[in-house]
Structure to design on (163 residues):
């Protein structure tokens, strides 16, 4: 079902959890992973810093036995979600995995979080890993109790429910 996974990295503490969930999902589904980092042209970020961030994420997945590649895209901060969605379409992703800070829908709408925008503008299923699921995604931690993983599937498509 999830042959191609797109995951995002931005250097935040939430990347570790999203990458952990991506790793586990890719292993279960025997998926390939595309890691994308959107370099915000209106924020000071060195190209080398962006490249190192992406390379480390891909290397971590590959070391865990996951087939992974990566790419860097550029955008203004306001359009990062659109770049993520465009990359997902171009690479043939069947699901997007993202971390989030766990802000409310209202705050996400007002502040304009990238995850919130991807959820509402995209046509793909999105697996959102909130910050409170650290135990589930921590390397070497078999305990998955007490987790809250949010999985959103667009309702505007006439798709069959997941079996």
């Amino acid at each position: 079902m999830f042959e191609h996974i797109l995951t995002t990295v931005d250097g935040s503490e939430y990347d570790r959890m999203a990458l952990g969930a991506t790793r586990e999902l890719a292993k279960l589904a025997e998926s390939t992973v595309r890691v994308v980092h959107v370099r915000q042209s209106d924020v000071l970020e060195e190209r080398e810093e962006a490249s190192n961030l992406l390379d480390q994420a891909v290397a971590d997945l590959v070391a865990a036995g996951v087939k992974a590649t990566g790419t860097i895209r550029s955008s203004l901060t306001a359009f990062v979600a659109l770049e993520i969605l465009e990359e997902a379409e171009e690479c043939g992703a069947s699901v997007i995995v993202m971390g989030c800070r766990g802000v409310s829908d209202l705050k996400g709408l007002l502040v304009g979080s990238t995850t919130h925008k991807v959820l509402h503008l995209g046509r793909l299923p999105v697996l959102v890993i909130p910050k409170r699921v650290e135990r589930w995604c921590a390397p070497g931690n078999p305990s998955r109790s007490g987790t809250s993983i949010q999985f959103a599937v667009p309702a505007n498509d006439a798709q069959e429910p997941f079996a």
